[in-house]
Amino acid sequence: MIEYKGYTGVFEFDPSIDAFHGRVVGLQDVVTFEGRSVDDLRAAMEDSVEDYLEFCVEAGKEVERPYRGEFLIRTTPEVHRVVATAAEAEGMSLNAWVETAISEVARQRRPNAALGAKTAKPASKRRTARTSRST
User: Fold this and answer.
1) Are the CB atoms for 40 and 21 separated by under 8 Å?
2) Closest by alpha carbon to 23, among 14, 93, 15?
3) Residue 85 main-chain phi, psi, to 5 deg
4) Which helix (H) or strand (E) holds 21?
5) pTM higher than 0.70, yes or no?
6) 30 near 16, Cβ under 8 Å?
7) pLDDT tens for residues 77-86?
8) Is residue 37 within 8 Å of residue 80, measured between CB atoms?
């Protein structure tokens, strides 16, 4: 992975062109880059992100952020019950509990990443977490 200005690029080696080919992930727009070395690849990604940002300004289009900070999780009713009970027992909303749990896993996998975890609000001022079940 390569990171630049909050955008993340993933890449792989393509032997048919004897070069690395990559793309910026987390966007609906397609932003790609390629290079023959990791240094070339890094510079190409930076150029591609800059081109994307410039294009958005020129087109009057809102720059897409790589991630909104929201996603839907589907799980079994049993796991949902256990997690909701654990959150309630700790005086947290379900959302705050899940965010704490996944932030800890993320820190273990990428200890130097800036994760920006939020502080849980007191129980009396929290919004109720919305849940969804597949039928």
Assistant:
1) no
2) 14
3) -65, -40
4) strand 19-25
5) no
6) no
7) 999 999 999 9
8) no
